[in-house]
Fold this sequence. Notes:
The protein is an alpha+beta fold. It contains six helices and 17 strands.
Amino acid sequence: MRKQNRQEKQVRRQESKRIRRSPQTRGMALVAVLVVTAIVVTLASTFIASTGTTTTISRNIESHTQARRVAESGIRLTLAYIRATSNWRTQKSEGTWVTNAALSGGTFSITVIDGADTNGDGVIANPAEGDGSLSDDSADRFTITATATFSTATYTSSAVATPDGATTKVLFVVPDKLSLTTQDDAKQTLMLSWNFEVQLISASESQSAFDTATGGVTVAYISEEVISSQVGTKLFISTIGVVNEEQVLTDEYGFSASNGCYTSTNIDIVDNSHEITNGLTNGSLAILSSSSDLHTATGTLGGGANVLARRPSSSDAVLIAIEIGGSLYGGGTAAGRRVHLPWGCNAYDIATLNDTGKNLMKRSIEWASAVSEIGVYTVRWQEQP
């Protein structure tokens, strides 16, 4: 009997222990539930915040696009006034013409300054780039700048206007302007046959000489014949267009991380909607009459690179256009239009360029000049987002 009583007491003590532990167990379960609930709430909050951020970004992009349209429209309205007002130069002085005018849900302000920023420093220096007077010479070019706002976005766009009669003016970068190679002499002859004005500059000339030379032209053409280190980045921040043949300068001018060469007569057109390739058929296109060295841009491309043609049966780009403001490889944006041509390796011979290739060369120079006819003025856009 005593043994049975002891056993019963032991059972009761064990049950008592289990009963005493059960609140602790329930407490642990409650903590676990609270932790899971907190995690769920945090994830939900993060998702809601992320959704809000995405919506905000979308709205900002839309506002930026609208602000750009308002700015460009403001410039076109200013040009329309100039076209319609024969004595505008004496009626208007240099400076602010319009302040916070309402247009299409946004506002814009306009300034008009004599001359043009030719060295890309954001300033029209007097007297090197402008003389401060709109009325002293009817042949003077001038710069119209529009700053527009739409919602929370602001956009600035500029256009350089030159009285009619101006032509595409090429700064031809060569090894020695006093002694052209056979290749460069043939290129200059082509440019002159297209009624381009051609100004020569030696690759080894100083940065100051390049800055001065760009003031009187609309585009620079870098020959494959130059020593790349002599050219360097002398034209990198220039607001004029740059058309490049030189293989080793693909990274310096933001086209791509690296480059290469191949021997062929053909390229593959992949975008015929661009002004340079408009009217051509997508697919294989012969640009040389016989095989010669062609030039590729390889590796990482600039974010703003518009690939117009590739090497046949390859993803390597051979013809690239970058619009003003386009992102460049290595950082920064294009101050002027940029074109990477398909030819330019050491063994390239200009004599092999057929009519199709010559037309691509001509169109590339014209497009990079950013020149369009508006009324009686030649206008070169310089958008600066």
